Q: What sequence folds into this?
């Protein structure tokens, strides 16, 4: 190489280095990690930067992250770390132990209390103020879910609840619709039993599909809803004891047992079979959460569907004096040690603000918004059935946040109720077992 | 032997064959079902899962898997972890087995019993201590963390010990009389004789490593370190058992393919291993 060429090369390098050095500071990347479930759908949405083109939980959250990465001016890169839903919280705990903490993590509000009580979650009040998230905009249910002991520990993303998905074609055959086609809903346990009998007589079909095989969450959520509707609570004020030897709990269990023994609940259904039974027109009512609205609505558009021109959805019908229904929600937290610097913390909060501003997009999944502004927006109300269920953001009842190990409790209560339905365990024995098992669990929590 | 006796024996054989065929069909039916459903659209399976042979069919479940840019990384991780575990297990178990079978040293019996006692310890019982150890060593999300814990293989040591015990001592003694070093005897004489046992142990180790889910779930939290089983599981939506049945089935087929290929090539060894013998 000639001297001249060497000089040219050195000059070119110098220009390159100089150009890099002259780049504005904000072009430096700040990478933050986002631990979440909701699945992966890179094949469909890996390159979608416009969230309005996405559908479903996975599609919308994937597109939201893509859109943020493509549009934010601060050089922030959000790197999703997707985990399987089932063992998600165990994996998150193991990550904390291993000091491999994600910057942001999705967390159910029913689980948040456990992490907060172990002092693992950052309070976010000041951070939210710094990026313009106003906690006063949180819906009542969301506030209850993420504000613990006066401090805000998470950004609420949605509320999900326990709904009745209705096949109004079947209800109509049983004479349980009004002249305008709207469903006639029961207002008491006796009315419910009478309606269920009417459906059985008129169509030969059971009134309900709800999951009774391989799942414990469904019976627990129904049980809690029925208790809350009697203006009652099963947990003590300090959240450390459960009492189900009460009139409200016994009423709830008795009703569930009558529905089961009366043949008003289709038997032997796991989660998938429950949805199949509803989609195929085998039952009048499917008791499940918000997340199926989209699928059922889509199915109802097809002429060959059993739900064609006959799908509706309402909150779990009010059978007692108080308007109430079990509710929970997804939220975003910053676990201590996740943000390694102020810069990362600022980047995480900026991304959270982006998510908050796109709460409407997330509500297209069927989940209810956590943002009051979205709740009141015409855009939200224009979506199918949202007007029917929007009030859940006001009266939805979460398990008190000071009750630890809510997932384990849900499993125990569900197992015992399943024993009542599947093997005829007597109600007093069910109540004894729930109290013994749950209180033993709670006594062991430090 | 009378004609009647021969005819009776033939009938008996045929009945046994028929029973075997029926049992095989019962066993294979769910696999065919899984394979068939993997080519069905998820929306249709949400309504029915008894539509195996009627159209529509789709490849979307497979393109969704292959469309994930991480899937080949996960296959590579699984291959590295499985092959690494297999190789190191064979080395360690062969050496340990030879030591227990052919050498004398103080405390040999106690040590051997201690190794065998490991067979009675379920893996779940040691998961938390293992996690803490690897966390303290800052080794999570590394190949070392995915491979090392599975190298404690009491079954492998037992298998190799028993196998080496069955090798005639005369072969070694002849070599010892020639003053051949023991490691050379092991390497040149005994080890080649143990290939059938090595194959059996190697296949079992590889299959277990490939299918392992629990330990990778706990140790690997960064997507780039997921193994295939773990990575595929993370792609499932929260309600895949209803909304993504075809996708789940395609995942099962996809993850099982390498195992299927291995079975095709090594079925002689696998069958003999399951039957409790090693092929010589």
A:
């Amino acid at each position: 190489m000639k001297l001249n060429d060497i000089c040219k090369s050195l000059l070119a390098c110098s220009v390159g280095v100089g150009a890099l050095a002259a780049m504005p500071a904000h072009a430096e990347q700040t990478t933050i990690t986002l631990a979440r479930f909701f699945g992966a759908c890179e094949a469909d949405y890996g390159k979608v930067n416009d969230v309005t083109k996405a559908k479903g939980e996975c599609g919308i959250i994937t597109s939201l992250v893509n859109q943020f990465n493509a549009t934010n001016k601060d050089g922030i890169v959000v790197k999703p770390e997707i985990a399987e839903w089932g063992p998600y919280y165990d994996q998150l705990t193991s990550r904390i132990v291993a000091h491999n903490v994600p910057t942001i993590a999705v967390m159910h509000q029913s689980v948040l209390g456990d992490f907060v009580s172990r002092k693992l979650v950052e309070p976010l009040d000041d951070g939210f103020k710094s990026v313009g998230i106003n906690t006063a905009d949180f819906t009542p249910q969301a506030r209850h879910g993420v504000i613990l002991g006066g401090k805000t520990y998470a950004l609420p993303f949605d509320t999900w609840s326990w709904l009745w998905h209705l096949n109004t074609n079947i209800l109509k055959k049983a004479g349980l619709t009004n002249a305008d086609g709207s469903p006639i809903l029961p207002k008491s346990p006796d009315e419910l039993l009478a309606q269920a009998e009417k459906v059985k007589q008129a169509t030969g079909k059971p009134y309900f599909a709800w999951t009774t095989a391989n799942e414990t969450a469904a019976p627990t959520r129904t049980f809690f809803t029925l208790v809350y509707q009697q203006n009652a609570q099963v947990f003590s004020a300090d959240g450390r004891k459960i009492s189900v030897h009460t009139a409200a709990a016994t009423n709830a269990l008795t009703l569930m047992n009558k529905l089961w023994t009366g043949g008003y609940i289709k038997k032997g259904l796991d989660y998938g079979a429950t949805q199949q039974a509803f989609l195929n027109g085998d039952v009048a009512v499917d008791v499940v959460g918000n997340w199926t609205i989209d699928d059922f609505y889509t199915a109802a558009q097809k002429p060959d569907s059993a739900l064609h021109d006959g799908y509706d959805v309402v909150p779990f019908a009010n059978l007692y004096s108080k308007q109430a229904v079990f509710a929970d929600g997804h939220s975003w937290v910053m676990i201590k040690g996740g943000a390694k610097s102020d810069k990362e913390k600022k980047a995480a909060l900026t991304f959270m603000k982006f998510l908050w501003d796109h709460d409407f997009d997330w509500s297209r999944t069927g989940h209810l918004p956590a943002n009051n502004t979205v709740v009141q927006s015409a855009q939200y109300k224009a979506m199918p059935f949202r007007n029917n269920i929007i009030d859940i953001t006001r009266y939805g009842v979460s398990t008190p946040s000071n009750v630890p190990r809510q997932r384990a409790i849900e499993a125990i209560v569900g197992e015992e109720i399943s024993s009542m339905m599947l093997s005829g365990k007597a109600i007093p024995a069910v109540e004894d077992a729930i109290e013994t098992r749950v209180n033993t669990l709670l006594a062991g929590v430090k | 032997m009378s004609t009647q006796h021969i005819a009776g024996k033939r009938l008996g054989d045929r009945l046994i064959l028929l029973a075997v065929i029926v049992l095989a069909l019962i066993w294979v039916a769910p696999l065919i079902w899984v394979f068939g459903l993997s080519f069905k659209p998820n929306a249709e399976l949400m309504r029915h899962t008894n539509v195996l042979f009627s159209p529509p069919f789709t490849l979307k479940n497979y393109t969704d898997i292959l469309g994930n840019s991480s899937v080949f990384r996960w296959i590579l991780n699984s291959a590295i972890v499985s092959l690494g575990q297999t190789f190191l297990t064979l080395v360690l178990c062969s050496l340990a087995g030879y030591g227990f079978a052919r050498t004398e040293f103080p405390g040999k019996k106690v040590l051997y019993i201690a190794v065998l006692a490991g067979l009675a310890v379920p893996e779940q019982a040691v998961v938390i201590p293992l996690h803490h150890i690897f966390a303290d060593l800052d080794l999570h999300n590394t190949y070392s963390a995915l491979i090392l814990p599975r190298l404690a293989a009491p079954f492998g040591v037992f298998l190799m010990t028993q196998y080496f015990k069955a090798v005639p001592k005369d072969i070694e003694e002849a070599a010892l009389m020639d003053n051949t070093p023991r490691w050379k005897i092991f390497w040149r004489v005994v080890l080649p004789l143990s290939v059938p046992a090595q194959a059996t142990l190697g296949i079992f180790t590889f299959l277990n490593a490939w299918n392992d889910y629990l330990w990778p779930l706990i140790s690997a939290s960064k997507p780039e370190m997921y193994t295939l089983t773990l990575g595929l599981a993370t792609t499932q939506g929260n309600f895949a058992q209803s909304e993504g049945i075809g996708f789940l089935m395609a995942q099962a087929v996809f993850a099982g393919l390498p195992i299927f290929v291995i079975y095709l090539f090594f079925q002689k060894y696998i069958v003999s291993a399951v039957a409790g013998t090693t092929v010589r």
Remarks:
- Residues 4 and 176 of chain B are 60 Å apart (CA to CA).
- Chain B is about 75% helix and 0% strand.
